Amino acid sequence: MSATDQTKRPAPADIAARKGGVPLVMLTAYTTPIARLVDPHCDMVLVGDSLGMVLHGLPSTLGVTMEMMILHGQAVARGLSRAMMVIDMPFGSYEEGEAQAFRSAARLMAETGAAAVKLEGGAHMAPTIAFLVARGIPVMGHVGLTPQAVNTLGGYRVQGRGADGDRIRQDAAAVAAAGAFAVVLEKVPEALAAEITASVSIPTIGIGASADCDGQVLVVDDMLGLFTAFRPKFVKRYAELGAEADRAIAAYAGEVRARRFPGPEHVFGDEPGKA
Length: 275
Ligand code: KIV
Fold this sequence. Notes:
Blueprint (H helix, E strand, L loop, with lengths): L11 H5 L7 E5 L3 H7 L5 E4 L3 H4 L11 H14 L4 E5 L9 H15 L3 E3 L7 H9 L4 E6 L5 H4 L11 H13 L4 E5 L3 H10 L4 E4 L7 E4 L1 H4 L17 H17 L18
Parallel strand pairs: 1-2, 1-8, 2-3, 3-4, 4-5, 5-6, 6-7, 7-8
Bound molecules: 3-methyl-2-oxobutanoic acid.
């Protein structure tokens, strides 16, 4: 099934059932207009904590708060009618323990209408994932490069090369065994991503991973060329909207300075009844 022949909004169980089938399509969205654009084409839309860097100019995702996630989650929900919405649990909202994670996840879902939460971490987060799933909260895992751990990982580097591959294999297996309905594999070697995809029972969603994953995700501002502060190798630019916006803004500024804007068609006459 593809997003285009979908007759009802997929639930987490429908996504899990797509293991090994037509690849799952996921993009991020942080606002209503972008949610409206991606909705017809995606199986899942992620309100990612990448919004901290992409929209708010933060240096990492560590400063993202529950309030930011809820505000953007509510905006995205207004723009979706077909795709399933997943929302990121921000740094500091779930790591203390299972009860804290449940409170945060329940609040994110209740206040935004998201169908599922995503949280970062492998084997060490498995008990938390199992706790949430047992209490009615569908969880998407996220292993490999986990950006909230940038300071302990030593930067945004590839995870799982060589002997370190076992750590990522165990993380993905633990997340699946804990009951996650899908798992993001970020920035891991291609062969490792393909091997994990073949070995776990849940769909893998790749970003900087492998075309063999059960689905792919990108940050929408990256693939549209709207976020240009840096460009990871795994980003394919499908459009250059940033360059197009720059051209349009420069044209506007030039016309204002030359008194060519507004033109006669943009101003109002004195006669009542005319728009
Ligand atoms: O926050 C985010 O956008 C993400 C994706 C890149 C997977 O976690």
